[in-house]
Design brief:
The protein is 0% helix and 51% strand. It has strands at 2-6, 9-12, 17-24, 32-38, 45-51, 57-59, 67-72, 77-82, 91-98, 108-109, 115-120. Strands 2, 4, 5, 6, 9, 10 and 11 form a 7-stranded mixed β-sheet that branches. A 4-stranded antiparallel β-sheet has the order 1-3-8-7, with no helix packed on it. A hairpin with a 4-residue loop joins strand 7 (67-72) and strand 8. The protein is globular.
């Protein structure tokens, strides 16, 4: 499975962006897709994940209530709708294939190329 993230950009605090993750290849064996982010000088951290077959979701506490993850199985797409953005949301955002619905990075592989989100105050 190959994953490609897109949709990043620059936005002012309080604004919104929608990121997309396109999956290609052997998508039949995808358990789930997760989003992670890495801010400059910081470790990569979990953001949200969705189970492919049942659309169960999990979120980090820092984005719960502001971000929403969704999927379009027919199009092999996963989306991350980001609302009420804050400067601390500035990071490179990555999508990856999940082996379980987890916030633990080692449960993920097939990392896509990241997309940069910049939130200005």
């Amino acid at each position: 499975v190959q994953l490609q993230a897109s949709g990043g950009g620059s936005v002012q605090a309080g604004g919104s962006l929608r990121l997309s993750c396109a999956a290609s290849g052997f998508t039949w064996d995808i358990y789930g897709i997760g989003w992670f982010r890495q801010a400059p000088g910081k470790e990569r951290e979990f953001v949200a994940a969705i189970r492919w077959s049942r659309a169960s979701t999990i979120y980090s506490d820092s984005v719960k209530g502001r971000f929403a993850i969704s999927k379009d199985s027919a199009e092999n797409m996963v989306y991350l709708q980001m609302n009420s953005l804050k400067p601390e949301d500035t990071a490179v955002y990555y999508c990856a294939k999940a082996n379980s619905l987890s916030a633990v990075e080692r449960e993920y592989n097939n990392w896509g190329q990241g997309t940069l989100v910049t939130v200005s105050s």
